[in-house]
Amino acid sequence: MAALLVAAALPAFNGDAARPQDDDALFDEIDHPAIAYRSAPLNDPVTRLAARLSDGSLTMAYDRDTGYLPALLKALDIPVASQLALYSKTSLQQLLISPQNPRVIYFNDSAMVAWPRGGFLEIAAHDPTQGVVFYVMPQQPGATLTRRNDCLVCHHSYNTLGVPGLLSRSVVTSSHGDAMPFLGNYVVDDRTPFEERWAGWFVTGSSGTVRHLGNQMPAATRNTDTEVTARATSVAAFPDALRGYLSPYSDIVAHLVLEHQMRVINLLTRASWWVRLAAAEKRDVTAVADRAARELVDALLFVDEAQLPSAVQGNAEFATSFTAPGPVDSYGRSLRQFDLRTRLMRYPCSFMIYTEAFDALPAPALEAVYRRLWTVLSGGETAARYARLTPADRDAILDILRETKEGLPAYFRRARL
């Protein structure tokens, strides 16, 4: 989603070089024949939408005030209630962005759309095999969708795990939205403490007694000074900020969902790329797949999730739109049901397990992920960090997966250890 982030220099790919052996290393394999990110055929939601627009089987209405935004969200099945708003000038259209004219973002499990008033539409779609692909669409009648690989300047970096991906930043800003990173600058996912989140963003809803950095222009000092961090959880001080957009909210629960799924998207892409590269270079595919699976499964099971320090309350409209797709088991349980007291999800296994990208993992990667998932859920993994998954959690997750996840290996039918 064009640029919430800092640029990173990318090293040239050397086919004879050893692959990195640590999770922080970045290697540029984007044009390797096994990947061919810029040239391989795509099957992401935007590519499929563009084909329907091209053959005339779909048309999108143009609105005088919001252009193609409502029609595009409808075509991509992205709920308006997912709207998030940021006012930091840290993206592609930074000259337009301010607390009075934020950039809004809408998302579902596989696509994101962003727009500041007066600007063009930015779209990111997760291709099941190629990773995140970036597009733009001008806000004028007759405009078409265009792929933009220049977004990779920011969106292919250490912060996206070395693959074309997504990330969110929390950057302290001035009253005009200018970034002031020397006062606070964080890359955010579901492991990040609340006290470091949402600088440069509007946040609606309640975080209880917990302070965060949202809704401040500026956050007068570093966020480690808890006396000046935000308790505010509304845009009441900026009554015109979201006027003219599709929703008056920038929901706190939607923030939490997006921060989780962005990391999983990047981990899914990385697992796919690593295994394909290992196979092409005749390396030990099983070892590579097992290594990728460990971090991906930990993310799917929220093992390192920052505990919610108090009850969180968001907008019922987002909760309804998010939970509606299910699927549910015979007891009405779903991996899309929220907890919001001490953790995000009631049953801590990610809804991203139902995505096309998960099912499209290369066979060795998918097998490794399922093996690792079973090891943890069945009780075979005894490390202390997995103790937060209680026996009741593991039983519920296994029951839900057995009824709702197609392609689940037969050994998931066994009893837990």
Jot down its keywords.
alpha+beta, 2 domains, 9 helices, globular, disordered N terminus
In brief:
By secondary structure, the chain is of the alpha+beta class.
Describe the overall structure.
The chain has helices at residues 45-55, 69-76, 152-155, 252-280, 285-300, 316-323, 356-359, 363-378, 391-404, and strands spanning 84-86, 103-107, 111-116, 121-127, 131-137, 146-147, 168-171, 185-188, 201-202. It is an alpha+beta fold and 417 residues long. The strands form 2 sheets. The protein has a 7-stranded antiparallel beta sheet with strand order 6-5-4-3-2-1-9, with helices on both faces. Strands 7-8 form a two-stranded antiparallel sheet. A hairpin with an 8-residue loop joins strand 5 and strand 6 (146-147). Helix 5 crosses helix 8 (363-378). The longest helix has 29 residues, at 252-280.
